[in-house]
Design brief:
The chain has 16 helices and 7 strands. The longest helix has 19 residues. It is an alpha+beta fold. Helix 2 packs across helix 3, helix 2 runs antiparallel to helix 8 and helix 9 packs across helix 11. Strands 1, 2, 3, 4, 5, 6 and 7 form a 7-stranded mixed β-sheet that branches. The protein has 2 domains: about 220 residues, Endonuclease III, domain 1 (Orthogonal Bundle); about 120 residues, Nucleoside Triphosphate Pyrophosphohydrolase (Alpha-Beta Complex), CATH 3.90.79. About 30% of the residues are buried. The structure holds iron/sulfur cluster. Iron/sulfur cluster binds next to helix 9.
C-alpha cells in the first residue's frame, strides 16, 4: 500500500474506533434517518450552536411533525417559532423548500446529492450531511470542525476561505471518508473537531489521531486552519421610532432584500453614523414625520451578524394624532403585537423598555 493511502486508512480507522468508544453527548437529531428531521436540524444548525438549536428543533418537530405540516403552516406562525434564532433567510428557505417538496415532489424528499443540493438554502455541506445521514450516500461533509481537523492533521496551509482551498480540502475529506459508512464517519470527524481538536484548547494527548498528526502539540495549532483574509465588518446605525397613538402602535414589515426580511419593526431611520438626540431630530426623515415635539430615547443595543454590526436605538413618541407616515406600515392594536415575529434586536429593545409588560395594562407603552 502506498504511504499516503496507508495514512488515510490509519486516520479513518483510528477515528471510527474512537467514535465507537467515546462518550459523547447525544443530540435529538443524531441516529435519526428521517430526511425531513435531518434537513430541519441541519438548517437550524447552519448558524446556530447545538445547545441553542435543540429547543427550536424540538418545538418544530412537535408542531410540524412532517413536511406536509410545515408546508401548510402560516408564515407568521413559523417566523414566531423561529424567533430568537436570527438569520431569517433560513426560515424563508425552510418554508419555500417544504412547499416545493409537498406540492411538486409528492412529499418525498429528494434522495440524490445533486437533487438535495438543488433545494433552496442548501449548500455543499448541508447536501452532504443530508445525503450521508439520511440516505447513506458517500459524500464527505466539510464544516468548520472538519477543516480544522484536516488542516491540523496534515499541517496543511491552504487557506480555507478561497475556492481553491475549499476544493483542496473537499478532496482531502473525500479521500479519508469511509465510503461504506459515511454517516458514522462524518459524525465522527465533526465530533472530534468539536470535542478534542477544538479551536483554542486542542487536547492532543486524548486524540486518536495524535500518533500520525503533523501539528500535535506544536505552534501550528495557533495558526491552522489558515484564512486568506479577515472579515470586514460593516457598521450600521438603526434609529427606531416607536410611535404610539391611542391604543395602537405603528409597525411595518421589512420587505427588502436585506437582513430581517419578513419581520416587523417600528419606523426606521438608518444613518451612516451614530447620531445623538439633537442630530436625529434634525434628520430629514424624522422631520418628514412632522411630529410635535421630540421623541425620547428609551433603549439601545448592538447585534453582531456575520458581516455586520448593527447599532440600534429605540426612541418613543406618543402622538395625539397619527403623523404622516409611509404606506408600507400600519397602526396595529397593542394587543396584537405579541403574535408578530420581530428580529432579536427589536425584541431586546422592547424588553428593555418593557413594551410587552405594558401591553394589556391601562398604562401607556
Ligand atoms: S493531535 Fe491535536 S492537532 Fe492533531 S488532530 Fe488531534 S487534537 Fe487536533
Amino acid at each position: 500500500m502506498k504511504k499516503k493511502a496507508r495514512i488515510e486508512t490509519i486516520f479513518t480507522q483510528a477515528l471510527l474506533e474512537w467514535h465507537q468508544q467515546a462518550k459523547l453527548r447525544t443530540l435529538p437529531w443524531k441516529k435519526v434517518n428521517d430526511p425531513y428531521k435531518i434537513w430541519l436540524s441541519e438548517i437550524i444548525l447552519q448558524q446556530t450552536r447545538a445547545e441553542q438549536g435543540i429547543p427550536y428543533y424540538l418545538k418544530f418537530i412537535q408542531q410540524y411533525p412532517n413536511i406536509h405540516a410545515l408546508a401548510a403552516a402560516n408564515d407568521d406562525e413559523v417566523f414566531r417559532l423561529w424567533q430568537g434564532l436570527g438569520y431569517y433567510t433560513r426560515c424563508r428557505n425552510l418554508l419555500a423548500t417544504a412547499r416545493l417538496i409537498a406540492t411538486e415532489l409528492g412529499g418525498i424528499f429528494p434522495n440524490t446529492y445533486a437533487d438535495i443540493r438543488a433545494l433552496r438554502g442548501i449548500g455543499d455541506y448541508t447536501a452532504a450531511a443530508i445525503a450521508s445521514f439520511a440516505f447513506g450516500l458517500p459524500h464527505a461533509v466539510l464544516d468548520g470542525n472538519v477543516y480544522r481537523v484536516l488542516a491540523r492533521y496534515y499541517a496543511d496551509e491552504h487557506p480555507i476561505d478561497t475556492l481553491q482551498g475549499k476544493k483542496h480540502f473537499q478532496k482531502l475529506a473525500d479521500e479519508v471518508l469511509d465510503k461504506k459508512n459515511p454517516a458514522t464517519f462524518n459524525q465522527a470527524i465533526m465530533d472530534l473537531g468539536a470535542s478534542i481538536c477544538s479551536p483554542r484548547k486542542p487536547q492532543c494527548s486524548l486524540c486518536p489521531l495524535s500518533n500520525t498528526c503533523n501539528s500535535k502539540n506544536s505552534e501550528l495549532l495557533k495558526i491552522l486552519p489558515l484564512k486568506s483574509k479577515k472579515i470586514v465588518v460593516q457598521h450600521r446605525y438603526f434609529n427606531f421610532i416607536l410611535l404610539e397613538c391611542r391604543d395602537k402602535i405603528w409597525l411595518e414589515r421589512r420587505e427588502t432584500k436585506d437582513i430581517w426580511n419578513g419581520l416587523y419593526q417600528p419606523f426606521l431611520i438608518e444613518t451612516d453614523k451614530d447620531l445623538n438626540d439633537i442630530a436625529l431630530h434634525k434628520n430629514a426623515a424624522y422631520q418628514g414625520l412632522q411630529l410635535s415635539g421630540t421623541a425620547t430615547i428609551v433603549a439601545q443595543t448592538r447585534q453582531r451578524l456575520s458581516h455586520q454590526l448593527v447599532h440600534s436605538k429605540l426612541y418613543f413618541k406618543h402622538c395625539k394624532q397619527p403623523p404622516s407616515l409611509p404606506p408600507c406600515g400600519s397602526w396595529l392594536h397593542k394587543d396584537t403585537i405579541k403574535s408578530l415575529p420581530f428580529p432579536k434586536t427589536i425584541l431586546e429593545l422592547f424588553e428593555k423598555k418593557g413594551i410587552f409588560n405594558a401591553i394589556g395594562t391601562s398604562r401607556n407603552i
